[in-house]
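The freezer alarm interrupted the setup, so I double-checked each line after restarting. Inputs confirmed:
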Amino acid sequence: MNKNKDKNKNIMIENSVIEKVFEDLRNKNQKAFIPFITCGFPDCDGFLSLFEALDENGADIIEVGIPFSDPLADGPVIQTTSEIALKNGVNTDTAFKTIDRIRKKSDTPIAIMTYFNIIYRYGLKKFLKNAENTGVNALIIPDLPTEEFDAYKDNFNRAGIDNIIFASLNSSKERLKAVTEKGRGFLYCVSVKGVTGVRNDLDPEVVKFLKDLRRITDLPLALGFGLSNEEQIKKVRDYCDGIIMGSKILSMILESRSFKDGIKSVEAFVSDINKILK
Amino acid sequence: MIWIKICGITNIEDAEIISGLKVDSIGFVLSTSSPRRINLDKALEITEVLRDKGDKIKITGVFVNEKIEYVIDCANRLDLNYIQLSGDENSDYVKNLREKLIKKSGKPEIIKAIRIRDLNKKNTDYGIDNTYSTYNYNTYDITKALINQKIESFKGYADFILLDTFRKGVYGGTGKTFNRDIIKNLKFSIPIILSGGLDSKNVKEAIDTVKPFGVDASSKLEAYPGKKDPDRVRQFVNAIKAEGRGQADGSIITKINRKESVNSKMVAKGERHCSGYSPKDGYFGEFGGMYVPEILISALKELEKNYLMYKKDKSFHDELSYYLKNYAGRPTPLYYAERLSGQYGRAKIYLKREDLCHLGAHKINNTIGQVLLAKKMGKKFVIAETGAGQHGVATAATAALFDMGCKIFMGSKDIKRQYPNVCRMELMGAEVVEVTSGSMTLKDAVNEALRYWVSRVDDTFYVMGSVVGPHPYPTIVRDFQMVIGKETRKQILKTEGRLPDYIIACVGGGSNSMGIFYPFLKDYNNVKLIGVEAGGRGIESKEHGASLEYGKKGIFHGAFSYVLQDDYGQIQEAHSISAGLDYPGVGPEHAYLKEKGIADYVYITDSEALEAFRILSRYEGIIPAYESSHALAHALKLAPGLDKDKIIVVNLSGRGDKDIENK
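Predicted 3D structure, all chains:
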């Protein structure tokens, strides 16, 4: 079906596909750009166009959100896009079908971001199997902390899917150590004390947080939540291995007069960001 | 199976280890003159630790020649399962005690200890007890006759006879064995518990010889006086369980079998019950957990740590009791609704009047506890979600009382239908934050409160309003609401001399029901616990709030429980005329109680609740909250089919003034 799957099988034993992305970038002193978009937003075709625009403008990994009715780690933008996507009739099956369509054209690594109830209700094994079959490389589950993840870890390992672990600004060093030991793919470093959403400033503790993490773990560090402008990115670029952006990109689509305009501004914005990262 | 009691417990560590070994009972020596003596306060503390973990191990109080009043006082305060009389109490004493117990609570079973005396080892002369010390017996037969005579004198008064070794001036815990051959193959008219110097090496042989109902051990399992040796205890229990099937014979076999079957049934259920409560902290069986973003984990762990610390802190409890009494107005009455009962058959309906708490609902019990905890933890602000507004009002009031900043998150739909409560919150200085996301009801208020908490977790305490959310909230809220059940238990025993047949409470998230159920969980074989969910416009209409009956297992608001959801895991909106029951999730402990068959769950529709609302107002002059009307409606359905002497307790969790406009 695509080369990604072959790559997947060969590399899984050592480095996962996602870890390989970071390794390649690190060798070139470049940083990963990881955009987040909600599957089914603004509609099913619009989502595919948005994915393509990001893919073509230098996204290294793309996070695809399967919408949930009660996204408690998300701010107003992703709440809105989730609501719109759900109204468009997106569900777990259509999300996998969409990813399957994408995989016919692109082998850019994909991480699904969703809440644990979506996965639990679908059936963890079935979810992981479908993820593996459609060439999904990682899962990001904000409400599945390591305490709860432990019970399901073997399923993830068998499927060869990375479960992305979160690191939080307010965690103690001991906790960060314990948490990062369980991580694969990359470490999702949360740059704010709060939920996702556009913020203009950067928490002054972020750089120290990244420096601490660098000493604690060898996992690639990807910073996310609240990143929205070049200033912020420049400040953190040298201390992390990648940045994650969701609300900013989605709000550009939400706020534009037409979808076409929205895509254009996203393309321009993403290529500017990527210049800093590459 | 042989019944096992380990006696002379003096500390929590021993109690927990022993309980973990599935022993049937632990004993506290509550009289002086033993190195294993424990004072009542310490015994209470240990019992509370065990009970708080959901541990159902039976507690025995051991007394030596005490005044009956003291024995009864201890039995009541420790909620003893067994009273063991190890002194020179005669049959009149036991009879007298038994009569008083029946009046008071009827529950503890009595174990009378009889000490068997080795009069002269060399001549193999034996006797029993000091009562007979003037005699010289030199044949087993006379001794046996005397033992039997003594046991016979307690028939009808004592439930068990414990055979121990006689040593002058020492009542129990001698560590010495007596010659068990003298009672070999004896047929007893009361089940026998064998004691006296038992350990892992001799217990098997002792069981084979005497074939007792149970065994009791104490001093031989100790590392030093007052401290058990975990290995010795484990070996002892294993030796019995490996042996296990000691069958008694003769005249009492039916009685023993009855006892055994009742006992083993209890143990079997109890075991499941216990193992569900604490295989891992924060879980009730598979339910519960901490399904929240990483950033909240530290906050929840901090909360858990502080809660466990203050839970043991006497001054915290004193302060809590002070405010519950003087501010919230506890204890609330348990009222016999005679006129209402008369209209609905012959059963007696009692109402636990939580509607008489300050602010008109049970919510204040929990907010005083949590806000006090927040204050101790050095937090400056409290936040809370609210549905009907009752929890919001209680949080706002408590925040005013303890001088804390306060924000209440409330769905805009609820703001409209419970507007008077919005005014009350604002009057008491709280800021009411309107939540316009999702269904704009309680579930979205929780989401928004959690989102806000994530951003202010350092100085802000989230006061959870029900037994929902991530661990440790379901436990904390249940503990603070448990006062309802504790009072009910005392009150019904005082007025009726026995436990009720039914306890009925409404279930939204489930805090008032969990609070009244919890102190009765161990009695679930006799006391039927019924939770009433919102049937809304009827189950067929799909517009209801019956998460336990019609929801599916899933993760919602940080916990694994039952949730109203579609096939893809999207949370569905609940519906109920009562804002407090309009919630698609339910507390994980309820999910557990349902799954284990410990409590039953039913539903009542909007119109049935409304009818009960009118009926209680009309017959008793009490206007119940719509939420509580659900519980009442089920009681009114149930009562006409019951016998005359049945007792129903309905938890009237709140008053209905807030609902009058919507009538």
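Quick read of the result. Chain A touches chain B at residues 68-73, 75-76, 79, 86, 91-93, 115-122, 142-145, 147-148, 165-172, 175, 179, 190, 192-195 (CB under 8 Å).
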